[in-house]
## 1
Amino acid sequence: MRALRGSVGVVALWLLLVACGQAESEDTTTTMAPVTTPAPTTTLAATTTLAPTTTAAPTTTATTAPPPPCVGGIPPGLPPGAVSVTVAPGDFDGDAAGDQLFVYGAGLPDPWHARVVLSYGYAADVVIETDGMVARAIGGYDLDGDGVEEAFLTTGSGAYAQLIGLYRFVGCNLVRVTLGGQRAVFAVGASVGNQAGVECLADGRLAAITQSTADGVTYERTVDRYDLVAAAFVLDESDADVLTRPGDDAVIDAAARFQCGGLTLP
Ligand SMILES: [Ca+2]
Ligand SMILES: [Ca+2]
């Protein structure tokens, strides 16, 4: 009986300890609650004050400073004997003021000329080395995104295509853009068996597309993508693939287009 009483006492003591322990643990667990108040992390909003780093924009405007004005040059008016005159707008010196690109015939010995007349009257003129019968102005488009528009024109035409050439206005003169040491010429047009097109890509490259088919069902297509470096195109990558109608109709039919901003072929 004593042993039982003793064990009862032990049990009672144990229960008491457990009760105290529970009470303590309950107390401690309830005190844990405040720890769950990391709500202040919402003060991260203050990190949005990092926005001022976007004020780096002024440095970009500094790199696109307007060019110094060109002086001298030639009278802006076309020669009296100019024929087959075409003209198209652009900003060929990058000063945000509209300029004009003229392409005209002047008879032998140099039949075709390109002339840029800047907004303030400065003019530069070059003889076009043509690839066919007729040259025409297309207009200005900033291919490489440097803030200065390149001058696009047709330098002739083949059996089924028009031929596209480019000039850059460098050092107050027109400079023909080259490819592999020769003047760069890209065809745009389509025949039954051959298609060719040009696309100015958003990443600043120019894509030249050539496509051919023997049966009107299967088309072999090559896309050459060029970087414009100074006044030269440099091949960046070339892809070849095989397309099949009707599944690839959309791509096949788009091959022979000229897509450079809002420019259109004359
Ligand atoms: Ca201009
Ligand atoms: Ca440009």
## 2
Amino acid sequence: MRCPFCGELESQVKDSRPSEDGAAIRRRRHCPECGGRFTTFERVQLRELTILKRSGRRAPFDREKLVRSISIATRKRPVDPDRVDRMVNAIVRQLESMGETELASNVVGEMVMKALKALDDVAYVRYASVYRDFRQTEDFARFLSDEGLAEEGNSDDDELPAGPGA
Ligand SMILES: [Zn+2]
């Protein structure tokens, strides 16, 4: 593996251990040329996936990009990073086992939305707002209301909920 710091082609593996519940092998590497240290991950890849974007462009499926978009959605949320890792692994496995080498980006988007919904409401809404490209507050409000996530009690003052003991 080429050293990302100096470009030296031969880096040395210092340590190699299972990671992500055995779904990956984590290798710590050392560059003999510049002394740089970096980590690589080895994962099973069942097939090469191509993503067909809404623009009509094609791009190779990028796991790291998926991880980044999910970590942005879950930022500062009480979500265990291990759960996020497992979620990403599950999504990738599911994508790879769909039997298609080319997938529309919305297939991936919907899968992430579904997984985030089970994980954290706020992360779900954040991801949806980017993915569905909300441009106005009404888009948000409609989405929250459709999803049953809207705050209650601000619609009609006359309809006060029954108090305790009523
Ligand atoms: Zn180096």
## 3
Amino acid sequence: MGIWMEFRCENRDKPNAYTSYDNECWSYQNHGAMEMANDSSASVLRILKIMEKQSLKAGWAKIKGKWYCPHCKPLITAKSEKMAEK
Ligand SMILES: [Zn+2]
């Protein structure tokens, strides 16, 4: 048995995740890192680390332990900075 793994953006359910077809959350187009792991926790962990590297290279960001796609990352970053100003 294999285990399918795919990164999904944490912001994908929010209204600002969609602007237009060409400007939307990458998870709407299933454009996250995706790989097949073997049926063992060691394989899942190894593939997860590979996917983390792929995601960072593609422009994703891990913010407070959650992954955001390149479309949503600036929205989250701007919100964080706004909250920090208060
Ligand atoms: Zn997104």
